[in-house]
Write a structure and sequence with these properties.
Blueprint lengths: L1 H45 L7 H6 L2 H4 L26 E21 L5 E7 L1 E2 L7 E11 L2 E10 L1 E7 L5 E7 L1 E6 L11 E8 L38 H4 L6 E13 L4 E11 L11 E12 L1
Antiparallel strand pairs: 1-2, 1-4, 1-12, 3-6, 4-5, 5-8, 6-7, 8-9, 9-10, 10-11, 11-12
């Protein structure tokens, strides 16, 4: 009799355990289904990141943008927009909300063919930086000088630290930049499909003066020489250790070309594509910079 009671109690416990586990499983499945439905709904609301207009971006809350990658995307001119924006000589116009979003990065590498001849060509790379590589909020003035439209960059997030990886595994850091850009058009306008701008800009050093390398060497702080080379007080440009010990803040230059393909005269918005050619990081003077070709889309607004 006692064994029968124990068996019945055990069966009841097992049945209760199974019922409890089934409830937990159902709750878990409902939670997964809810999260999955939320994910689908969010993506159906946002759609492709490039399809968002400026008004749609401004209508989103912080929680909607957080973690979605939209903060790294440039708005687009509405698909229904058409026309052009006239600009007059003797007037200064304000360009605001200028945004540059790279979509392709290539690095110049020397390749060797079957005959042993070497040539330099741009090879595709893999982006290693998280979604913080776009430039946004850039502003400047636009005016007509000598029959050409001239844009002068003045303010905004005009540089972004970026790293790409070559097919062989080498990583190439650089400062994606349009600092102090002065770009001229081939005509005086109007701003419409086919309108172009091109000019040069500055590319500051990827590292700042306070940066210390693994051996504690820097420009304004740190050691002048590595620990084992403290007695090395002289050097020449040909010395392989001279550039490693003598850090410097390099400021190089790059070139960029813009091509407008869509304009909304009502809001003053314009957008298109760009191609930029700039140098990579020099590791504070220790390395020869590589040429980097950057292609992408841009958006701006004329006030």
């Amino acid at each position: 009799m006692m064994k029968l009671c124990i068996l019945l109690a055990f069966i009841a416990i097992v049945a209760g355990f199974r019922a409890n586990m089934q409830m937990k499983t159902d709750s878990f499945n409902k939670a997964i289904a809810g999260a999955f439905a939320g994910f689908i709904a969010a993506n159906s609301v946002f759609g492709p990141a490039h399809a968002l207009t400026r008004d749609q971006v401004l209508s989103l809350s912080y929680e909607q943008v957080k973690g979605s990658g939209l903060a790294n995307r440039c708005p687009q001119v509405p698909e229904s927009a058409s026309g052009s924006i006239s600009i007059s000589s003797g007037k200064k116009y304000k360009v605001t909300d200028l945004c540059l979003e790279p979509t392709n990065w290539q690095v110049a590498e020397e390749t060797e063919d079957k005959k042993g001849n070497t040539k330099k060509e741009f090879v595709n790379t893999k982006l290693m930086t998280r979604q913080t590589y776009s430039l946004d909020g850039v502003s400047g003035t636009l005016e007509v000088k000598d029959g050409k439209a001239v844009f002068t960059e003045e303010d905004g997030i005009d540089y972004a630290a970026t790293t790409v990886q070559l097919p062989g595994g080498e990583r190439v850091p650089f400062l994606f930049s349009i600092k102090n850009l002065v770009a001229k058009s081939s005509s005086a306008g109007p701003i419409g499909p086919g309108f172009d701008l091109g000019g040069s800009f500055r590319v500051p050093s990827y590292r700042t003066g306070l940066f210390l390398d693994p051996k504690g060497r820097g420009t304004t702080t740190g050691y002048d020489f590595a620990g084992a080379l403290a007695a090395r007080q002289t050097g020449t440009e040909e010395d392989e250790l001279f550039k490693e010990n003598n850090k410097k803040f390099d400021v190089l230059s790059g070139d960029i070309e813009f091509a407008v393909n869509k304009v909304d005269p009502a809001s003053g918005e314009f957008g298109g594509v760009f191609v930029s050619n700039q140098p990579s990081d020099t590791d504070m003077g220790a390395k020869t910079p590589k040429d980097i070709l950057i292609k992408g889309v841009f958006f701006g607004r004329l006030e």
